[in-house]
């Protein structure tokens, strides 16, 4: 094999192309700033609705109308706020009408002497202080980097075969799924040139579904884009639903990031980092034959 460098017990294989490595690190930076600035934007109105309208049926926005029974319809899915409870102010996260005390993390954070009453704490947002305008500038700046980077990755991956070989699971991959699940539960990670089926599934969900979905729902929240492409509102069921899906996509990306880092550490951080920096990956097992697959 042309990419074989060491034939003793392990093999040093060229695993990641320059296109995969560059786009990986560009995404790492852009997604960090987009998530943290997105939380800053969310803090300006920390309520998510389902549908085309914001129903204002939540506790925060009843205001003086509450005493007169003129409550509007309630299509609230998520509401993070602070409220008075038993003589003290607590942080509350309401999910589909069910309230949870999230004091210290969501709704109310900061120290006892300097409490902060906002949905996400200051350490989770950029800027750390409340500044919606700057948060929007940062978010859109990195969005203009994220979108072309995704198209570059997609085009390069289709050309060099990375898309079909490493990302899209094939039917025969699913026969290895039980084995891979057991292997992960036992914290045993074979080092092969090819991704295992769990890697393929997670990368396919993020790169083929979540990131394009985040781009599409982000565009749907823009009045200017809606005027040019009004069909986007029909596709996502309205601007409020698009905002809800955009937020859920962010949660999936954050969860993926946490699991990704844990797996890199568990599988061997030096080998994994070398692969994503130089492209070379040390394999300790041969590729599965077609019969094994």
Global geometry = globular
Strand segment count: 8
Please identify the oligomeric state.
Answer: single chain
* Alpha-beta content class: alpha+beta
Portion of residues in helices?
40-55%
Q: Spatial order of the strands in the main sheet?
A: 2-3-4-5
Mean pLDDT over the residues:
88
Any low-confidence stretches, pLDDT <50, length ≥5? 1-7, 61-70
Strand residues, percent: 5-15%
Helix-strand string: EHEEEEEEHHHHHHHHHE
Span from first to last CA?
Answer: 21 Å
Task: Calculate Rg over CA atoms.
Answer: 23 Å
Largest sheet: 4 strands, antiparallel
Briefly say what this structure is.
The chain is of the alpha+beta class and 293 residues long. Helix content is 51%, strand content 13%.
């Amino acid at each position: 094999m042309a990419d074989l460098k060491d034939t003793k017990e392990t093999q040093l294989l060229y695993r990641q192309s320059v296109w995969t490595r560059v786009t990986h690190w560009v995404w790492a930076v852009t997604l960090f700033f987009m998530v943290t600035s997105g939380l800053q934007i969310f803090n300006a109105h920390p309520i998510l609705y389902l549908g085309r309208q914001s129903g204002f049926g939540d506790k925060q926005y009843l205001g003086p109308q509450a005493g007169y029974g003129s409550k509007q319809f309630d299509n609230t899915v998520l509401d993070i706020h602070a409220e008075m409870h038993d003589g003290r102010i607590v942080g509350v996260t309401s999910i589909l009408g069910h309230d949870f005390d999230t004091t210290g993390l969501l709704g109310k954070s900061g120290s006892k002497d300097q409490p902060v009453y906002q949905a996400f704490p200051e350490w989770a947002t950029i800027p750390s202080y409340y500044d919606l305008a700057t948060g929007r500038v940062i978010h859109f700046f990195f969005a203009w980097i994220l979108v072309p980077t995704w198209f570059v990755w997609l085009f390069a991956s289709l050309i060099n075969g990375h898309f079909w070989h490493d990302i899209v699971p094939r039917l025969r991959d699913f026969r290895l799924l039980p084995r891979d699940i057991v292997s992960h539960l036992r914290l045993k990670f074979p080092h092969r040139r090819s991704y295992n089926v769990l890697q393929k599934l997670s990368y396919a969900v993020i790169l083929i579904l979540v990131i394009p979905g985040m781009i599409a729902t982000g565009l749907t929240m823009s009045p200017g884009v809606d005027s040019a492409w009004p069909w986007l509102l029909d596709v996502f069921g309205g601007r409020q639903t698009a905002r809800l899906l955009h937020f859920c996509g962010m949660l999936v990306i954050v969860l993926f990031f946490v699991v990704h880092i844990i797996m890199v550490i568990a599988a061997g951080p030096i080998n994994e980092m070398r692969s994503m920096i130089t492209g070379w990956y040390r394999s300790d097992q041969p590729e599965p034959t077609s019969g094994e697959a």
